[in-house]
Write a structure and sequence with these properties.
338 residues; alpha/beta
Length: 338
């Protein structure tokens, strides 16, 4: 805690000057601090992108069943293993349990289903994707559209997740999109503490309370769209992009770096693991080239002041999935974070 500050800000838990910076999770396993994200990857696109990411040096990959691309990623991973590009033990692979698979007896089945799709034997990290239970709609057909709320409490789902660690299917377990109140509720009940909370966090939405709460308890925070969603979000949600912010661009010009590199480095220097995503080879290389420069204290303070304290829905909450069903409670659907 800084002597000049009246609040708790834990120190950064990883060494950015190391050859391959990693966060040591509370489970004891090491997670590379830059991952390749596979959200919004089109069919036929994600397999080659994963192979290109491996060539660019990525060893941490963020995956999810609901993205609908696990089998294609599995084929790419098998190719990489067969060709000796990389070994399974060299990779850190994160998977996610979808909302309609929360029932206790379904959790291990859903995990096995994803492992089979990916042609691997274990996840390095497995996350509850959203803090909401929907009615189960089948392992191959994760609910999206007319989704209905289920009856399984989140803590029951967590108990089933804990068993996945005991059986060796998952080395670490965690959550995604958990706000502060649910995070603390889980921490007070968990037998195996969550290793990670993957959330929306970026220069326009820094979420200091939640981030510092997690880091103070050695719960890794990962930013699932650390660039604020980029052009995809601007198009989908009409939200401003930090990539175009004049302050970010001025700092980038001074360091001879791109705005994306500055935004990613800002999060890393705040102790947050980043998950950038691009299918363009030059962007992949750029997004992992973050360890040969450092933002000054002044740079960090200026970027921090850009915080708008507003969610930019960079991982769209499952609002629209309820439309047409009995659990849609507004014209836009149901906002689970209301």
């Amino acid at each position: 805690m800084s002597s000049s500050s009246s609040y708790t800000k834990p120190p950064v838990a990883f060494d950015l000057s190391a050859e391959s910076p990693c966060y040591t999770l509370n489970s004891g396993h090491k997670m590379p601090v830059v991952a390749y994200g596979t959200f919004r990857s089109e069919p036929g696109e994600v397999g080659p992108a994963v192979l290109a990411a491996l060539s660019a040096g990525y060893r941490h990959f963020d995956l999810a069943h609901v993205y609908g691309n696990e089998k294609e990623i599995g084929a790419a991973l098998k190719q990489a293993f067969d060709e000796g590009i990389v070994k399974r033990e060299d990779l850190f692979l994160t998977g996610k349990l979808w909302n309609s698979d929360h029932d206790r007896e379904i959790v291990p089945q859903a995990c096995d289903h994803s492992l089979n799709n990916l042609q691997i034997e274990y996840f390095d990290l497995y996350l509850i994707h959203f803090p909401i239970c929907w009615k189960h709609t089948g392992l191959s057909t994760p609910s999206w559209g007319k989704s209905e709320l289920g009856n399984t409490p989140l803590i029951d789902t967590w108990r089933a997740m804990e068993k996945l660690v005991e059986t060796g299917k998952c080395r670490s377990i965690g959550v995604s999109n958990y706000p502060m109140m649910l995070m603390h509720d889980l921490v007070t009940q968990a037998e195996i503490q969550p290793a990670c909370n993957q959330i929306e966090v970026h220069a326009y939405y820094t979420r200091e309370s939640l981030v510092n709460y997690c880091l103070a308890r050695n719960i890794c925070v990962t930013a699932h769209t650390p660039l604020g969603g980029g052009q995809a979000n601007a198009d989908a949600w009409s939200t401003p992009s930090p990539l175009k912010d004049s302050v970010v661009n001025e700092i980038a010009d001074r360091h001879g770096k791109s705005p994306a590199q500055v935004l990613l480095r800002f999060l890393l220097q705040n102790g947050v693991v980043v998950l950038p995503k691009s299918v363009k080879a030059h962007r992949m290389a750029e997004n992992i080239d973050l360890f040969n420069f450092e933002l000054t204290d002044t740079d960090m303070a200026r970027i921090h002041k850009l915080d708008k304290y507003v969610s930019y829905k960079t991982n769209p909450n499952p609002l629209a999935s309820f439309i047409g069903g009995k659990d849609a409670y507004s014209a836009e659907g149901t906002d689970i974070f209301d």
